[in-house]
Specification:
With about 425 residues, this protein is of the alpha/beta class. It is built from 14 helices and 21 strands. A 6-stranded parallel sheet has the order 2-1-3-4-5-6, sandwiched between helices. The chain has a 5-stranded mixed barrel with strand order 17-18-19-21-20. The mean pLDDT is about 95. The structure holds S-adenosylmethionine and iron/sulfur cluster.
Length: about 425
């Protein structure tokens, strides 16, 4: 039987797509291997969100090409957003590459692999892969893609160009997957989508989908990522407030604290609207933990705009944040604008937001010392033998002495110490 090795880059959507490809290829006779040196097919599932991500992947492709020297039949391919971004230009530019497959072409992958070198980057308005069965990673958490694509066209972002139009998986198919993973023993479900809360299947909006999933036996916790602030409707907030399994945790990308920058990003909200949304969420969901994405150095971002981002971070006090230097992307609106912030200044601003966030994260976590927290046990702690690690409802990592607890179990532990990223418990 031929074997396939898949390496995944980028966001959780790609991790989920890799599980989908693994499942689909397994049903077509491919075994999975974790050794590229043994694989007949080597596939990189790629990210195009920033230039740096693409450079890394070109480097990795060069390194993997050595497997073809000894075993010339090996097929090397690129899947995902970068495949879609460069399309057929990739085969010209990269001699050892055999195939390029975009995010909407995975269904055809087994058939294509049996033919000549190929490029399949057709985007499809309807493809949701709802009928394909993913080979999910073992563990307590199952990721379920409920919508694909994005219609928002934020001016900095390549996603709508490489992942195509927004479309939702039918609610019945989503709920069938929730029931299936519950039966398989997963305890936590995370709904995934580029703008996950834009989900809609007829009368079933995102809030209604959460409520229906909440009723599935066997699942302990429900989460979702990433919601867009503009789609954070009353129905979604009400579902968070009333469904006991929906965890009090939200990754709500803000991007900037400056209303002028947000307008040029075409995010669809002002800093004030975002702050009011945060207030409404805190009022509805006690103990809510918030995290975010922030971009520094967007074209036209002045020192005052940047200060507004720092001010918003201080006002919201996010539990954690992913912070990025703006990276100019082809196809996008902002990609045609002059960059006004130098690399050095972007780096300075990035260090400043990272420093501030570390302070805030450390102070929030220090405030939890002495508290009892509920942990869904995931497995052994990475750095301490005999300790376990898991997550609180707020998605904070806790490490604690095992004392007979097992993965999948909910335990209560007392926090004795903390860092900006981890709670230590007894
Ligand atoms: N759909 C989500 C949203 O709207 O908030 C985010 C999805 S995107 C894959 C993840 C994050 O990458 C974004 O929130 C943004 O902070 C960052 N990002 C996207 N394009 C970027 C760019 N051109 N430069 C730097 N960061 C970027
Ligand atoms: Fe990109 Fe904006 Fe869509 Fe998020 S909502 S994926 S940032 S275009």
């Amino acid at each position: 039987m031929p074997s396939v090795y898949i390496e995944t880059y980028g966001c959780q959507m790609n991790v989920s797509d890799t599980e989908l490809m693994r499942g689909h290829l397994a049903r077509s006779g491919y075994t999975a291997t974790t050794e590229p040196g043994e694989a007949d097919v080597i596939l990189l599932n790629t990210c195009a969100i920033r230039e740096h991500a693409e450079e890394r992947i070109f480097g990795r492709l060069g390194a993997l090409a050595r497997h073809k020297v000894r075993r010339p039949h090996v097929q090397i391919g690129l899947a995902g957003c970068m495949a879609q971004h460069f399309r057929d230009r990739l085969l010209d530019r990269t001699p050892h590459l055999d195939f390029v497959v975009g995010p909407d072409a995975y269904r055809r992958l087994p058939a294509l692999l049996s033919g000549d070198p190929f490029v399949d980057v057709r985007l499809d308005r309807d493809e949701t892969y709802a009928d394909l069965v993913p080979n999910r990673a073992a563990g307590v958490r199952a990721w379920i893609t409920i919508m694909r694509g994005c219609d928002k066209f934020c001016t900095f972002c390549i996603v709508p160009y490489v992942r195509g139009r927004e479309r939702s998986v039918l609610a019945e198919a989503v709920l069938a997957q929730v029931r299936e993973v519950a039966e398989q023993g997963y305890r936590e479900v995370v709904f995934l989508g580029q703008t996950v809360n834009a989900y809609r299947d007829g009368a079933t909006d995102f809030g209604a989908l959460l409520a229906a999933a909440n009723a599935v036996d066997g699942i302990t916790r429900l989460r979702f990522t990433s919601p867009h602030p503009s789609d954070m409707t009353e129905s979604a907030i009400a579902a968070m407030a009333t469904c006991e399994k929906v965890a009090p945790q939200l990754h709500l990308p803000v991007q900037s604290g400056s209303t002028a920058v947000l307008a040029r990003m075409e995010r669809g909200y002002s800093a004030d609207v975002y702050l009011r949304l945060v207030d409404r969420l805190h009022a509805a969901v006690p103990g809510l933990a918030l995290s975010t994405d922030i971009i520094v150095g967007f074209p036209g971002e002045t020192e005052a705009d940047f200060d507004a981002t720092l001010a918003l971070m201080r006002a919201v006090r996010f539990d954690s944040a992913f912070m990025f230097k703006y990276s100019r992307r082809d196809h996008t609106k902002a990609g045609k604008w002059d960059e006004t912030v130098s690399e050095a200044e972007k780096a300075r601003r990035l260090q400043a937001v990272i420093g501030l966030q570390e302070e805030i994260s450390a102070s929030i976590n220090a405030g939890l010392v002495g508290a009892d927290v509920e942990v869904l046990v995931e497995g052994p702690a990475r750095r301490r033998a005999g300790w376990l690690a898991g997550k609180t409802p707020q998605f904070k990592t806790v490490v604690f002495p095992a004392k007979g607890a097992t993965p999948g179990e909910l335990v209560r532990v007392r926090v004795t110490d903390s860092t900006a990223h981890t709670l230590i418990a007894a």
